[in-house]
Design brief:
The chain is an all-alpha fold. The chain is built from nine helices and no strands.
């Protein structure tokens, strides 16, 4: 079933939309949740929560592409759960580690950008990612979007952990330079 057909089922409030979403994107949604949370139970809950949020969001939205829309929902729900899980004494995961690595590239909260600045920032980061070599870009996205561990990235790329760490460090340094060049506070 095509994305357009699935979205139309949501608009018709047909419960088959959930089943078709699960068939088409269930594995993808679960992958995102598990990569961030590293817990099968939480990943299953986030997967179901993603279907519910999609049900409540469509209509009025008519997402295109549906996969990116669902991925964004799953990622945000997963990050919220990771933040809850890692608060104080609840243990840790890749989420806080990955964010700590990126702290050197972002401004502090006191200088939070407005919406126009956020759009410009998004465009700069997208251009930066397109400029990276393929492996570096994929490593960067796996680390900072999917929150994969260094060990998992190394395994996926048949590389040493030190190579992954150095590739990510160089990419962060380039991102920082790019942001400074474009006038963003870092």
């Amino acid at each position: 079933m095509t994305d357009e057909m699935i979205v139309e089922l949501y608009w018709q409030r047909d419960e088959r939309a959930i089943r078709e979403t699960e068939l088409a994107y269930g594995t993808y949604i679960h992958y995102i949740a598990y990569a961030i949370l590293r817990d099968e139970s939480d990943a299953g809950e986030i997967t179901n929560d993603t279907y519910l949020k999609a049900w409540n969001s469509i209509p009025p939205q008519r997402p295109k592409p549906l996969k990116a829309f669902l991925g964004r929902i799953a990622r945000q729900l997963s990050l919220n759960r990771a933040e809850y899980n890692t608060a104080d004494k609840r243990g840790g995961a890749q989420y806080p580690l990955a964010l700590d690595e990126l702290l050197e590239c972002v401004a502090d909260k006191d200088n939070a950008p407005d919406t126009a600045d956020l759009i410009a920032l998004r465009d700069v980061i997208n251009a930066f990612l397109r400029s990276l070599p393929t492996d570096a870009r994929r490593m960067f996205i796996r680390r900072y979007w999917y929150m994969d561990s260094i060990a998992d990235i190394a395994s996926a790329f048949a590389a040493s952990e030190s190579r992954v760490k150095s590739t990510l460090a160089r990419a962060r340094a380039k991102l920082r330079q790019k942001l400074e060049k474009e006038g963003f506070d870092v």
